[in-house]
Amino acid sequence: MTTNNEKDKIVIFDTTLRDGEQSPGATMTLEEKLQVAEILDQMGVDIIEAGFPIASDGDFEAVSEIAKRADKAIIAGLARAIPGDIQRCGEAVKHAKQGRIHTFVSTSPIHLKYQMSKTEDEVLDIIRETVTLARSLCDNVEWSAMDATRTSIDYLSKAVDIAIKAGATTINLPDTVGFTTPEEYCEMFQSVRDNVPDSDKAVFSTHCHNDLGLAVANSLAGLKGGARQIECTINGLGERAGNAALEEVVMALKTRGDVLPYETGIETTSLMKASKLVAAVSGFPVQYNKAIVGKNAFAHESGIHQDGMLKNAGTYEIMTPESVGVRATSLVMGKHSGRHAFKDKLNDLGYDLGDNAFLDVFKRFKDLADRKKNVYDEDIEALVENEVSSKGEANKVEALTVIAGTGGLQKAIVTINVNGVHQTREATGDGPVDATFNAIKAILKHKARLQLYQVHAVTEGTDAQAEVSVRLEEDGYQVTGRSADTDTLVASAKAYVSALNRLDVKKNRPKTLKAS
Ligand code: KIV
Ligand code: ZN
């Protein structure tokens, strides 16, 4: 697709809600998925892969609900090369203004032998049958050759030829195990497209995992080889080392248009907001030095850099913070700020809350302003995200007292509202956090193992809110709870209880399937 200024339009396919959500511990609730989908849709993502409908009833519901609500984006669901999967996927996307069935099968010798126990010819038949079925249910069909980068070009070309003849409109050649290099990936697309007579009847797509840290470089190289769709996730979320990061792909194309003659339809000023939302709901914090959306991505510490920046920002800045939605930290509100001003601030920050949610967040803001003199944008964002992620949870921390210091064992007394009944317990521990968690465990009994306990300061200063993430695992189920408070121990208790609430919900759902 060529535009007026001769730049090819690149289709951005976001799979945060499918491949991203498959990261161990990154499970999102329906409410959270709807929020993420809404922001992706608003920021101009062309295709949102909303889930894997056969995996669980929860996944099906998420895909179909997102399909009903999406405004502009095409909504895709994933399906294995199995008729039942494809039919279920067709059901889930059928209410979308535009839906897509994305079906995949492995093509590499190692997958055929050990995972599928099938011959090459058997897999070619499966591709023909399943793509034909998908196409009978939906006009927009993507076919993926799982582990394409470890498949011979000859066999891959045969498979692609069959998929296009059977009606696939997009052909995705994933680097499933993050093994390829930019030059090799580019050549793979060139060769397959040269070998397949009808290659111009489909859009070719990249899908890169980041095991060697090459996912974005490989995706861009795929464009040189003729791909015109990039599959990616916000913050690079995804299994193992993750997927190509959407914000990096999009900003590389925008910033280096001189050597990468492509453009996307993404409103880049929304990138930071999307990143924060995904970090909040997935419980995967963004590393400080992460490109584009890391806390330090636009910070200039050394004297020489600061001097240059003061004279001309272009000396050390290749893109402006504003272009990705980073605002200068502003002192915004305090305890005298009223409802009206707070609503305006939320609108400025891009939040549009319903009446009840607004009142809850406003109350939390007033509580915070009583404890913290300066309330910054980041504080308000943390409040809103907390409100969204804890909505509807069964058990809530009502009170916490902790005795800590050098004088001996630490002690915590916790009160939790358990489905409407207040229960209080006290416990000792090896440090105040351990004591707090022990007291909670005495009320909400469980066998979960603590996998991660992480604390971040939301803003600068000793009165900053602490943002705590707690990841738990029990019987193969992993969940993450998050909370923020000016008191690190209160935030820890709330994050722990939130994780336990999520664990309960998850354990009561059937186990979900995974793709890659
Ligand atoms: O990495 C992969 O191969 C995948 C496919 C399911 C597209 O995620
Ligand atoms: Zn993948």
What does this entry look like structurally?
This protein is an alpha/beta fold and about 525 residues long. The protein is about 40% helix and about 20% strand. It starts with 7 loop residues before the first strand and ends in a 9-residue tail after the last helix. Bound molecules: 3-methyl-2-oxobutanoic acid and zinc ion. 3-methyl-2-oxobutanoic acid binds near residues 19, 176, 207, 515 and 516.
Q: What are the segments in which pLDDT stays under 50 over at least 5 consecutive residues? A: none
Q: What is the helix tally?
A: 16
Biggest sheet overview: 8 strands, parallel, barrel
Strand content: 15-25%
What number is the mean pLDDT?
Answer: 90
Number of strands: 18
Helix content: 25-40%
Shape: globular
Write the layout of secondary structure elements.
Elements: E1 8-9, E2 11-14, H1 30-42, E3 47-51, H2 57-69, E4 74-80, H3 83-93, E5 99-106, H4 109-116, H5 120-137, E6 141-146, H6 153-165, E7 170-175, H7 182-195, E8 203-208, H8 215-224, E9 229-232, H9 246-255, E10 262-263, H10 271-282, H11 303-311, E11 331-333, H12 339-348, H13 355-371, E12 375-376, H14 377-390, E13 395-403, E14 410-418, E15 421-429, H15 432-443, E16 449-457, E17 466-474, E18 477-485, H16 488-507
Parallel strand pairs: 1-10, 2-3, 2-9, 3-4, 4-5, 5-6, 6-7, 7-8, 8-9
Antiparallel strand pairs: 11-12, 13-14, 14-15, 16-17, 17-18
Helix pairs in contact: 1-2, 1-10, 2-3, 3-5, 5-6, 6-7, 7-8, 13-14, 15-16
3-methyl-2-oxobutanoic acid is lined by residues 19, 104, 144, 146, 172, 174, 176, 207, 209, 515-516.
